[in-house]
Design a protein that fits this description.
The protein is of the alpha+beta class. The protein has three domains: 2-62, Alpha-Beta Plaits, CATH 3.30.70; 65-116, no CATH class; 122-185, Homeodomain-like (Arc Repressor Mutant, subunit A, Orthogonal Bundle). Helices cover 58% and strands 9% of the residues. It has a four-stranded antiparallel sheet with strand order 2-3-1-4, with helices on both faces. Helix 6 crosses helix 8. The protein is globular, with a radius of gyration of 18 Å.
Length: 186
């Protein structure tokens, strides 16, 4: 049985879900961002207990089909930006359509309706959060970051960075008080 979990955006979230499933004696085949696959069926009381335990960590079980699809879109983008180094060979709309087996127009309209922003804006916001992370780590040059994040040039990266944050990457680097957003808040 597959369950879908809202606000599950990082590896630490996966660890929380695994731990809660194990506490309830539920065996799973996998736990990944946004979902888990559990052997057999779950009793309603087990599902409620799991939901209560997950809520304590800011996670939430979902059963609404539209919400589940929006979370799948978010999870696909988060995995692509934060946990994959390879560049997709097709554009984002084709990537999401193929991955989720839905027409992109439907996905885009649903996402905008539920989240209040476009898929593209969500994607760019996550890319910039990843860029912020890489700038803060101070291990790569801006040129290397632009290459790693699949920007055509440092100028392109800088323009997008400024459009989203209001700062240039170099100014951001100088600010010690500027905090990165957690993935849950992006």
């Amino acid at each position: 049985m597959k369950i879908y979990i809202k606000n599950m955006v990082c590896i630490r979230c996966q660890m929380v879900v695994k731990s809660e499933l194990e506490k309830l004696g539920l065996n799973y085949t996998y736990v990944k961002i946004g979902e888990a696959n559990i052997f057999g069926n779950i009793l309603p009381e087990q599902l409620e207990e799991l939901n209560l335990a997950l809520k304590k960590s800011g996670l939430l079980l979902m059963d609404d089909k539209k919400s589940i699809l929006v979370e799948k879109i978010k999870s696909a983008i988060i995995e692509l930006v934060h946990y994959t180094d390879e560049q997709i060979k097709i554009n984002l709309s084709d990537y999401l359509s193929e991955k989720l087996n839905y027409d992109y127009t439907y996905l885009a309209n649903l996402f905008s309706e539920v989240k209040g922003i476009t898929i593209e804006k969500f994607y760019l916001t996550h890319k910039i959060e990843k860029v912020k992370e890489l700038i803060v780590y101070d291990e790569l040059t801006l040129t290397e970051i632009a290459y790693k994040m699949h920007y055509s040039s440092v100028a392109h990266l800088s323009n997008q960075f400024k459009k989203i944050t209001g700062l240039t990457p170099s100014h951001f680097k100088k600010l010690k008080t500027q905090r990165r957003n957690t993935l849950e808040n992006v």
